[in-house]
Write a structure and sequence with these properties.
Length: 282
């Protein structure tokens, strides 16, 4: 396990817990989730799926690296990680989370674990809604569970290709590794350059400041942002064209490089404000 990284994650969460005691329950859950994910990611040591040269060729052709490439993590580690996440959810909710049934549903997918992950990446909520339509599972609950379960395995694989992404560059509004939509963004502490962050595989890539992270609208008159009153370095970028928003941390105001996954978890108040104003997460 990357002990230094986990220590930093815990340190950041503790700092925010002190400032937002009302978020104690959700931040305690995220702390457990991050711990479980870091453990799984450190145990999953896959060989690169494709060579550096092939990865660069795919990026140059405008294709995300994982496109049309089967991805299947260790079945036993995946199952055990799912059980750990389920226990964390149960402890937080105070009622038993249906982990065994969810894992069975995933692992019995006609295409196997690899097929499930491929389908989830291609369709996300829409696919999961169809996947659960004959069950009692809530699609959003399943999405939260599954994305947190799949994330450390994709992260372990994606780390091989971050240098290729940085070298070649990527100007699309989808992740260059797994094809997912970005979840968070950051403004670089040194030069203010914008980076988008994939919450599923933790890949980061540069993206234009004046451009919607979802519909690619580049009309400055249709883009605006507002800052958090609680933490002035956190803000919400909104697009008037597609009515979506993405949360952002300005590292120049923060004074250091941020951890986007933590910033996302601790900025729930910004989600509420944006959604109350009629914007939806991309």
């Amino acid at each position: 396990m990357n002990t230094n990284r986990l220590e930093r994650i815990n340190s950041e969460i503790e700092r925010y817990r002190a400032a937002q005691p009302e978020l104690e329950t959700i931040l305690a859950l995220y702390q457990k989730v991050f711990d479980i994910q870091e453990s799984a990611s450190s145990q999953e040591e896959p060989a690169p799926l494709i060579s550096d040269e092939d990865a660069i060729a795919k990026l140059a052709a405008g294709e995300y690296i994982l496109k049309d490439i089967p991805f299947e993590p260790s079945a036993e580690l995946f199952h055990q990680t799912g059980l750990k996440l389920g226990r964390a959810f149960t402890q937080t909710a105070g009622e038993k989370f249906p982990t065994p049934a969810l894992l069975k549903l995933i692992e019995n997918h006609p295409g196997g674990l690899s097929g499930f992950i491929t389908a989830m990446l291609s369709d996300n909520l829409e696919y999961l809604a169809k996947f659960t339509q004959n069950t009692s599972f809530n699609p959003e609950t399943l999405l939260f569970f599954v994305t947190n379960l799949v994330s450390p395995f994709l992260t372990a694989q994606a780390k091989y290709y971050q240098p290729q992404v940085d070298l070649l560059g990527w100007d699309k509004n989808t992740c260059p590794f797994c094809g997912s939509s970005p979840r968070y963004s950051c403004l670089d502490k040194d030069n203010g350059a914008r980076r988008l962050f994939c919450s599923l595989c933790h890949t980061q890539w540069n993206y234009r400041r004046i451009k919607c992270a979802y519909c690619s609208n580049a009309n400055a008159e249709k883009l605006r942002h507002f800052y958090s009153a609680l933490f002035p370095y956190q803000r919400v970028d909104v697009c008037e064209k597609c009515k979506t928003y993405i949360k952002t941390t300005d590292e120049r105001r923060l004074g250091r490089e941020c951890l986007p996954e933590v910033e996302d978890a601790v900025s729930i108040h910004l989600d509420s404000i944006a959604q109350n104003e009629g914007y939806q997460p991309g």
